[in-house]
Amino acid sequence: MTLRHLLLGVTLFFLGVVATGGATQSDAPKFRGNSTSNLHLSFQPYAGAGHEDMPVEVLKFVVKVDWDGTGMFVHEWRLKNRSNKKVVKIRCALFVYNADDPKKLLLRHQLGPIYKDDSVPISVNGIWPRQKCEGQWCPGEFVMQSAYDLLKPNWLKPLSPTNLLKPLAKDGKIEGTYIIALGIDRVTFSDGTVWEFEAAKDN
What we know:
Layout: H1 3-14, E1 30-32, E2 39-45, E3 56-65, E4 72-81, E5 87-98, E6 101-110, E7 119-122, E8 127-128, E9 142-143, H2 161-164, E10 176-189, E11 194-196
Parallel strand pairs: 2-10
Antiparallel strand pairs: 1-2, 3-4, 4-8, 4-9, 5-6, 5-7, 5-10, 10-11
């Protein structure tokens, strides 16, 4: 058993089900901080500027957050290859918006590898993963980690909402209602070519 698998198992054990739902904002998974917190999050697939140019689209993004808010776990997600080439690798990024202004990008955060070498094979016009969820288990689930922590000794530490939103803190506090969207910002195809998403501009 690898350290990654051990971390996933421990996280699964301690996770509380705080989020259910699908791909639209209205039924997106929600996270509310503890009784003293004014932090509220919802999760959804990326649909912002440049979304139509992404060769791999996120169709579903269901997140669970540790009961103490120390980590975020992707319970269920679905991807679609909209290109005419087979996909072999992807890179994920989180896009953060204020719920009061959902078109203004506040933060873009690259995630670390979700699996070994980020290998995710998706055929032309294919959906991945194709398996259905069974009970509390869903195919492709993973613990979110920051790409910026990979060189640190504790790089296996899950990405928490507070660490993600730290650049948005005011007077040392992270409060507000935010939308966290998942997008695929880098794709490697079977022919060796690479597509990379340009920095999204505010619109």
